[in-house]
Amino acid sequence: METPYPKLIDPSKTRIGWIGIGIMGSAMVSHILTAGYSVTVYARDLRKSKDLQTKGARTANSPKELAETSDVVFTMVGNANDVRSLILGPDGVLSGLKPGGVTVDMTSSKPALAREIYAEARRRDCWAVDAPVSGGDAGAREARLAIFAGGDSEIVELLTPMMSNMGIVRFMGAAGSGQSCKIGNQICAGGNLVGLAEGMVFAEKAGLDPVKWLEAVKDGAAGSAVMRLFGEMMFKRDYKATGFAEYIVKDLGMAAEEEAVTAMPGAALSKQLFSGMVANGDGKLGIQGVVSVIRRLNGIS
């Protein structure tokens, strides 16, 4: 296959569009700016872009306007409905992207929607990649995200020098594969978080010092990245969001929607417990806050 945009590997020529400058997106696009790329951003509230403007970013008034002056447009937004509107809507990215352009959705979204976007992009002689990420706001700030890419391998290869400014890119397969990889990641992460919360609450109820308990188990079979990232925050009751609880509820819900999946009992239980956070008004807290649900179930205020 002849690659349509070899200039994508050249920061001096590639024009980047970016939509979504929230808790992670701002840090991610900052790395792209630092690498020397020309960047235009769109946000519903452009006041949020002031810091990025001081770093050299320009602004656009709509996704379509953004796409008209971009070679590659990234989206990093809240959910699949946002993705559909911003990319496929009448004033969306694909309405303005020129033939040969690429749209890269880094939102945790639905595999079926990624395939739909890919098909529509190809119909317009454009390209689409689904590339959701894992690593939270710390991974975004420190440019060490895990990036799961689905689409055409040649296009992902062209984009890799650019996306490597945000983390490690792994090509997973055809359109939708990146999103499927992220859902699998969330199933594991959700189960690990629930297990960590239950182990910690058990240790507390048994009269153990949670600091000593974490130190004792972190290097054994129970040790994990989840424990390293969230263990201390859990026992300190620090529920600052690195990833919103309501988002993991969304992600685990998408796992149940996949037609190929018939039984995910662990994911269903995890979703129920994180949904307890949302029902308690804590959906905007961090995912480590699931320990508060386990504490309540065990009579700990």
Automatic annotation (TrEMBL):
The protein's name: 6-phosphogluconate dehydrogenase NADP-binding domain-containing protein
Q: Does the keyword Transmembrane helix feature in the UniProt annotation?
A: yes
Catalytic center at which residues? K182
Where do the 6-phosphogluconate dehydrogenase NADP-binding domain residues begin and end? Answer: 15-168
Question: From the UniProt record, which GO molecular function terms apply?
Answer: NAD binding; NADP binding; oxidoreductase activity, acting on the CH-OH group of donors, NAD or NADP as acceptor
Sequence ranges assigned to domain 3-hydroxyisobutyrate dehydrogenase-like NAD-binding in this UniProt record = 176-293
Q: Which residues cross the membrane?
A: 16-43
Q: Which Pfam families match?
A: NAD_binding_11, NAD_binding_2
- Which keywords appear in this protein's UniProt record, sorted alphabetically? Membrane, NAD, Oxidoreductase, Transmembrane, Transmembrane helix
